[in-house]
Amino acid sequence: xxxxxxxxxxxxxxxxxxxxxxxxxxxxxxxxxxxxxxxxxxxxxxxxxxxxxxxxxxxxxxxxxxxxxxxxxxxxxxxxxxxxxxxxxxxxxxxxxxxxxxxxxxxxxxxxxxxxxxxxxxxxxxxxxxxxxxxxxxxxxxxxxxxxxxxxxxxxxxxxxxxxxxxxxxxxxxxxxxxxxxxxxxxxxxxxxxxxxxxxxxxxxxxxxxxxxxxxxxxxxxxxxxxxxxxxxxxxxxxxxxxxxxxxxxxxxxxxxxxxxxxxxxxxxxxxxxxxxxxxxxxxxxxxxxxxxxxxxxxxxxxxxxxxxxxxxxxxxxxxxxxxxxxxxxxxxxxxxxxxxxxxxxxxxxxxxxxxxxxxxxxxxxxxxxxxxxxxxxxxxxxxxxxxxxxxxxxxxxxxxxxxxxxxxxxxxxxxxxxxxxxxxxxxxxxxxxxxxxxx
Length: 440
Hints:
Elements: H1 2-22, E1 25-26, H2 28-38, H3 40-61, E2 66-76, E3 80-82, E4 87-89, E5 93-105, H4 109-177, H5 184-218, E6 227-228, H6 243-253, H7 255-275, E7 281-293, H8 300-307, E8 310-318, H9 326-392, H10 398-432
Parallel strand pairs: 1-6
Antiparallel strand pairs: 2-5, 3-4, 5-7, 7-8
GO molecular function, one term: efflux transmembrane transporter activity
Family: Belongs to the outer membrane factor (OMF) (TC 1.B.17) family.
Main location: membrane
């Protein structure tokens, strides 16, 4: 019986060890890679980029002549006119016709060149959109990752104060037994311990929610347990940062700005493409064909491969005269789209500058807050230690001690919060300057 119990405990211990060992640390870089590999929006933008790339290839090939082949095989009963013999017959006849036609639009080349430019900038626009989606997903992952780490750190802080409070409760009980403290102090200290434990449970709930949001963003199995890289190196911004230099970097690197620029150029060539409908088209064509009729005495091979071959070469002209102002309406709409896209480019340049300016102000303020909250935490710690000393010397009261401890806890949590907020701000600055892809 003892042997069975020992075997069971050994299996249980080994099983737990396997689970712990299998729980790898998920680094921020690995999280970013997972998110980009699994994100649905990224996958959709990849499909759209492939579609515009295929359209670009189509535009290049449209510069070449078009070639079409046609043919038909049929049997006709009744009165039939045989084109080969020029006679009417009432018999049932079999016919075979086939031809290959090549045509080349030699006049309206500007139409095809505009189409080529249009598809080129559409592809560049979609490439930039794909890159921006990756950057946006990366920033979301960084945000969820840091929020989870912040909650983990807050749990450590609250756990430490729970342990301290438990020690205080035990010490208070001992002093009550020897008559140094009144009995009601135990309930005051125990109530504070329960409050701290409740606060920790609230934070654990937040921690689990943030971790689940991160796993959902990474499209990981929510049933799995993950451990994050706690000692995450912050993105350091040293020295004075010049907003004008950051603005120029953003204009060179921001994918959303490049996307709108490329879309504006695509709309410009869309106007040219629509205007090409005003121009007459002149096509050079060549047709090679042959036919067979059962009414002729010669064999199929003699008719189809030798006697009935025709070669036709010619010009085809198409002159637009009137189509109910349909072309004019399409040109007008294309011009409006182009003007609107130019306005979008101007607006995003202003937005980028304002975003950078606001973020730099936020970073500057948060740097000062770190100094103030470090001082606040240190001062609250000293006040708490002095108040605790006074209390156990019989010169203080539990209410003052509780207030001092709460101030110390609040200051510690606020310092932890501003540290992670500043870390996120620095990643956010990478995003706003179009450089967050350097993390991958």
